[in-house]
Specification:
CATH superfamily: Hexapeptide repeat proteins
Number of domains: 1
Number of strands: 28
Largest sheet: 11 strands, mixed
Radius of gyration: 20 Å
Number of helices: 5
Strand order of the largest sheet: 1-4-7-10-13-16-19-22-25-27-28
Shape: elongated
Structural class: alpha/beta
CATH architecture: 3 Solenoid
CATH class: Mainly Beta
Distance between the termini: 37 Å
Length: 270
Amino acid sequence: MSIHPTAVVDPKAELDSSVEVGPFCVIEKHVRVAAGCRLYQGVYLTGWTSVGENCELHPGCVVGHAPQDAKYGGQRTFCRIGKGNVIREYVTIHRGTVPESETVIGDDCFLLAGSHVGHNCSMGNGVTLINNAMLAGHVTIEDRAIIAGGAGVHQFVRIGSLAFVAGNASLRMDVVPFALVDTNGRIAGINRVGLRRAETPREDIREIREAYRCLFAPGVSLTAAMKELVKTVTTPSGKKLLDFLRTESKRGIAGRSRGRRESTEEDSEK
């Protein structure tokens, strides 16, 4: 184990022998850090926090700190970070707020500088938060979604897999899988670039396109559209979309963009 002499590591913290701890890091007593992790200078790990294998934690990031919730009274809550994550400069990830609850980051996520993950968020695998993206409490993000720089996500919002949210978007309602989302938080199309990068079969993409036409057709209610989709979807991607719609929503489902498309395929390649 390599621990810089200026780092402060509580003797009750559990660190694998291969962990590298840089200058001026602080690691408190309930923290566990798995093999292959590197902590650059000034990293703060606190609370009941576990960090999976082969993660990089860059200068100034704060992981597992108390939630920004006036109701929180110091009870045991958790922050669980998966494997292979890159957490860049000054990212903040807060632990759960209700006793025994947790904030969860999956595997192979990329959290760019200044992004924030609020208490009780649940993030899947391969998710990207670009600089200064902000997640309020209880946000759920499914696999391989991208939240662009400066976007703000309201508490309890769900974002489906392979969705792409535009920079500086204000997101107040749930986003269905595979969507492009404009700055007003509305659906501007499907994320074709993301689907191609994920090597999604053409049959799935065709079905997603048809499902979107049904869901966002003028004058068609969500309930009516779902009844049609139940009859027609056959691919794994189509079923994923339908399962998302069937899951209880606390914020409602975002509708289609009212104006011109603000998020384009070129946007989703950045």
